[in-house]
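This entry is listed as follows:

___
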Amino acid sequence: MGKLAEQENVKLYLVGGAIRDRLNKDNTLDIDLACEGSVKHFGKRLAKELDAKFIYYPSFQTGTIESLQGARIDLAATRKETYPRKGELPKVEHASIHEDIYRRDFTINAIAESLNPGEYGKILDPLNGISDIKKRLIRVLHDESFEDDPTRIFRAVRYSARLRFRIEPETFNLLKRSVPRLIKLSGERILYELKCIAREDSKVRVNTIKRLEALGALNFLGKPLRPLSPTELNRISSDDSCAFLCFLLSHFENASLSKLPLSKRCLNTIETISKIYILQTELKKPRKPSQITSVLKKYDERGLEIITVTSKFKVFQKIISYLENYSKIKIKTTGEDLKRLGIKPGPKYGEILDLILKARLDGLIEGKKEEIRYAKKFLEGC
């Protein structure tokens, strides 16, 4: 890569997590590169050499290279950042690698290594990040770091859980002092950080959430409607970050979530999970498959599935039966079949088809012939 950068008149540096993880002897598939020069042109050239896909984001002067093997390279132009207002997105300008290092979040991420042939392997560590990695400390670069960007609160706690590093005492004091500023962040920025937490493995994301809760850093969502149980949070597969996020957010009132730009699908899932105690009551009496289906068909199936994973109430075995069996049963009779029986189109169709489905669910009939016979029998009784 360094030789290619030289050909493109670019100064290229390995930065951030890639260096940190290597020094900490952690494996990482992702590589972060900082470019003094054109990200667009160098990114295209590098992607061509690697037979990979390059996506360029002109407004941010960044790009991503993704290989077929799943490896990812993030490219960013070296830049400096100034904050016109505390907590808002910064104003970005092109700058040298030295200025780029000083705009980063923590000392452990403020290290760069030259990849160009003339200076290959040269380490730039003006803020003693390597020393903090050895001491297993997370330290901000300056006293106003969390005020400038309160999202660093989420990252500090997440890195602490993932890397098993301590947050340096003065940094921790600054973090606690800035927690009230989280409420001023946009919904987009908060949701992005919550998604990053949800992508961590089970133990890391649960520890992160519980520590954020203890710090009051989830107060922007209001008071939880029910306890955030580590046991329940841990039951969700590490591979399913979306399910974890939906389950987490289901603990808070819908009004509190309105700030977050959640998809309609996600909101439906969250709403279903939040009805967990209502469902527990609704499912106590129904025993027949048709009765259970009548209760559950109005709920989001993804939300129901998450409930069965996270909650161990016996009554929720009925949800499993619904998801695995009852919800898959379909009748073969159509409106055209009812029309041939001499029934005029109208609301009656829905009533008859619903009755047929209930009979199928409860094992009273099977196959289309029996469905038609059942419909005729119903009509004779009318």
User: Anything to note?
Assistant: The first helix runs from residue 2 to 7. The chain has four domains: 1-135, 137-264, 275-328, 335-381.
